[in-house]
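Regression test case RT-17, inverse folding.

Input:
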């Protein structure tokens, strides 16, 4: 486990240093993010799902993801009401507290701590849960607090334009159908770049200078995201009697820090982008301390 955390920190620190010392453009994170979304990640998702042995019980994974989002939204809403946050800041607080980085950090963490089968479960959690949630509920929350609302048709078109969803559909639809070995090796090679490039992207995107922006509210958001949500998911998974691999994948995914995509929503809908950057930075740094604890807890033979 220490080697995995060390590798993650090394790659993220490398990305941060590249941007900090001007060796890449300031918006290099966005460029690399697009390359991952449109090239590396679809290849990874397709190859894993094409070879996966799935049963109906895997539907529990997206269900756990929607539970995590619901818990985060409810907790953040109650805290925001208590603090009487204005609508735009309330929407921002909801997004940072409930929407986790289940793709770019979740995949490397789950794959590094466990195995390929766990990663397949994490992909189902992410694509059918977190990704759908942020592109529907997340957009509705952001649009409701902004003058730049997005119609349901526009949200649907945005979803259908995502290569990762098509990779998921094709991967599931072609299970049991052989593909040429050279093509399979090529796709696997491209997909294997997803994990290290995601870590570099995280480092490129971090902005330490935003750590002090509304720091009390940022810490509240991080507490909801890193502790409250995974506790509820862990308890629910155990009550439902889910297999240990399901518990491990679901809880680790739910324990991810604030997703980078929240920043895109904040910028597009004129929300508090500086607060989002602070939440991303703080939760991403703190998760390096909370994730080993979850790994220790989940690794025990219940």
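Golden output:
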């Amino acid at each position: 486990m220490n080697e995995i955390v060390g590798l993650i920190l090394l790659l993220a620190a490398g990305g941060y240093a590249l941007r900090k010392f001007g060796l890449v453009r300031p918006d290099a994170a966005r460029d690399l993010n697009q390359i991952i979304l449109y090239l590396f990640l679809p290849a990874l998702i397709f190859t894993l799902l094409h070879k996966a042995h799935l049963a109906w019980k895997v539907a529990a994974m997206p269900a756990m993801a929607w539970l995590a989002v619901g818990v985060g939204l409810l907790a953040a809403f109650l805290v925001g009401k208590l603090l009487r946050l204005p609508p735009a800041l309330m929407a921002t607080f909801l997004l940072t507290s409930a929407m986790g980085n289940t793709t770019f950090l979740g995949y490397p963490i789950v794959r590094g701590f466990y195995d390929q089968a766990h990663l397949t479960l994490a992909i189902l959690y992410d694509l059918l849960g977190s990704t759908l949630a942020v592109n529907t509920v997340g957009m509705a929350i952001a649009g409701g607090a902004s003058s730049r609302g997005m119609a349901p048709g526009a949200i649907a078109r945005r979803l259908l334009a995502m290569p990762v969803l098509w990779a998921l559909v094709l991967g599931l639809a072609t299970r049991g159908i052989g593909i040429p070995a050279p093509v399979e090796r090529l796709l696997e090679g491209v997909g294997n770049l997803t994990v290290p490039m995601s870590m570099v992207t995280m480092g490129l995107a971090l902005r330490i200078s935003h750590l002090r922006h509304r720091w009390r509210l940022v810490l509240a958001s991080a507490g909801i995201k890193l502790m409250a949500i995974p506790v509820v998911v862990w308890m629910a998974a155990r009550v439902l009697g889910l297999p240990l691999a399901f518990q491990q994948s679901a809880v680790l995914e739910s324990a991810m820090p604030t997703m980078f995509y929240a920043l895109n929503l904040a910028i597009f809908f004129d929300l508090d982008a500086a607060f989002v950057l602070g939440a991303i930075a703080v939760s991403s740094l703190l998760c390096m301390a909370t994730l080993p604890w979850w790994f220790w807890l989940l690794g025990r033979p219940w």
